[in-house]
Design a protein that fits this description.
The structure is a homodimer. The first copy, chain A, is α/β, with parallel strands linked by helices and about 270 residues long. Chain A has twelve helices and nine strands.
Amino acid sequence: MCPDIDTITYGLANILDKDRGWGISDDSFKFLEQMKTFGQENWFRIGDRDLALHVVRTNLLKEGKTLSSITELIRKSFSIPTVILPASDNHIETRIETAQGDMHIQEFWVKNHAEPEIKGIRYDGISKADANIKAVELIRNSDLVVIAPGNPISSIGPIISLPSIRKELTSRRSTVVAISPIIGNSAFSGPASKYMEAMGVESSPYGVALYYKDVASNLVISDFDTAYEKKIHSLGINTHKTNIVMQNEEEEMKLSNFVLEKFNIA
Amino acid sequence: MCPDIDTITYGLANILDKDRGWGISDDSFKFLEQMKTFGQENWFRIGDRDLALHVVRTNLLKEGKTLSSITELIRKSFSIPTVILPASDNHIETRIETAQGDMHIQEFWVKNHAEPEIKGIRYDGISKADANIKAVELIRNSDLVVIAPGNPISSIGPIISLPSIRKELTSRRSTVVAISPIIGNSAFSGPASKYMEAMGVESSPYGVALYYKDVASNLVISDFDTAYEKKIHSLGINTHKTNIVMQNEEEEMKLSNFVLEKFNIA
């Protein structure tokens, strides 16, 4: 699985299960229900249609195809016009070190309900990974780079830990804008706060700014977070305030237009 | 896949798709439909629930479990009271040699609609395979052995090609009864006639008798096949005539009772 690529793919194909935040809407779970009768693990709710993508990708990876070529094939299968570029073609896996042992991030979050005490978080394979050259070039040639309000540690962290992507963003940080996934001390959804604290980063818009300070000089924060602005500015980061909670398509469009207008992009 | 074990398992679990003759009734095909959108092969109509069995078995085989222990686990998962014993724990694969090349039997039958000209049929792995000792013992300790009207070449052939099973049946052939899958010159269903002819065996009740003569001294044939009796008797095989076409449960019960009564088994 590549949870972020998959969710982006399904989202752009207009088949994302928005209630769950991942997987395909109206999918069935017959495969998984049958696996359960055989006493197999079934904590990861993979639907019957969703399963096909993971099987195809795993098979093609085994055949030696790159993640980016497979992502491209899948994008075309869904007739998605937007380019989707993985940050790297190498295997990078986020592992959570807990009081109950070392586990895959999905095992921690889905199977163990984020309950084990976190001792550390690491990206296995990151030191040997090369950035996808096409992603580096796209960053170089874009008018604006927007870092979505994804989980800074589990979604964005591995990407900006790749040296050539980090270098590219750092050299153009005045036209990189991140959107905070946190209001006050709480993430909108998911384990962002928990992971940030585990990495020694304060769970707040200031913590987000601190985490992104080398790669972005702009941060979109909530209207409610005026109190954090001065500290954020002291990091050399501009703040832009608006509603950052997106609960429907209208709010999504509003936020994206807000960002584009701020940077004079039509 | 183990088509015969699977069909027996689903049949005994009362979930067999009787119209197709294999797979699970009321299964869905979302996984396969999605695979098709990715340009993957989808000639084998595996349902979403059916897929789980093949994945579990493949995983357990890779972990080093034996086919018979896996079959037992699956049987228990379905609460099937009847013992199901694979003939061997070794990998045996039926290959069809055709004018268009060597292919797996399912590739020949399902993908290529049995159209390529058959040059030969072989059971890969049979010479290195050992019979399942439990199956040999069960044959030894049974009052009667009934060879179902399955395909003699693709379903029964590999089993009776295993030396210790063949030896066991041969030594007790007076209490082994086969049911002909053929009336006149035609098999009820499937490629039995085609495979028999490819193996140089006449497609008729006599051909069936000839194929089974070492392992069975009794053959149940159709009421319509009186003409073949004399030739069959000349092989040292008794004939028992009744309706051998089973189109519903009543006809299935009738045929099985006919056999049990013939051999005085209550």
